[in-house]
Amino acid sequence: MEKKPQFNGPRRPGGPRPRPGQRPRPGQGKQNPHAINDQIRAKEVRLVGDNVEQGIYPIEKAMRIARDMELDLIEISPNAEPPVCRVLDYQKFLYQQKKRLKEQKAKATKVVVKEIRFGPQTDDHDYNFKLKHAVGFLKEGSKVKAYVFFRGRSILFKEQGEVLLLRFANDLEEYGKVEMMPVLEGKRMTIMLTPLKTVPKKDSKESDGKDASTPESAPKPTTE
Asked: Between the CA of residue 163 and those of 87, 120, 122, 127, 203, what are the distances in Å?
């Protein structure tokens, strides 16, 4: 008697499939992030949104309103009493949410920290060069982390390094404020500066002063 060949291919997972409008059981497919239509279990809901008369409705009437408009009933605040629902096309609702999250992420400013390194005996030329860079960093909205690195016996000049960092912060007071005073950690003494929200523009001040001294409305002298 011949044996029937065994089928070793993938099998359909057991268990009944959920009916339309029925919540799938745990592990059966991907659930929507919101309860919609027949998935809403509350006896009454509060309707909000456009093109509907806002108020509290029995769930049957709220479902009928959504069906008449050929839209979905979406539970947006399940923990409210009663739950808050909105009548809208569900795919459009998900698209709006994704778009809103994307815009929020785009608006969120990423904090950029620029580091500037000094030695305990930095000369004026090197100091001014790095000060100029720090001004540019603060203007563009980045934080500035300046530190003095002490190598070997130069740790004996830690007071001199602190004076240098405080001078650095004082020279940048028009562009940034001190977020963290000088702190010695190991061989580094660090200070943190954060940019000011509004940076004064010296050019505009100077031009304003010139305009004030020679107003455009003043008549020009005439020669005959």
From this structure: 65, 10, 12, 13, 30
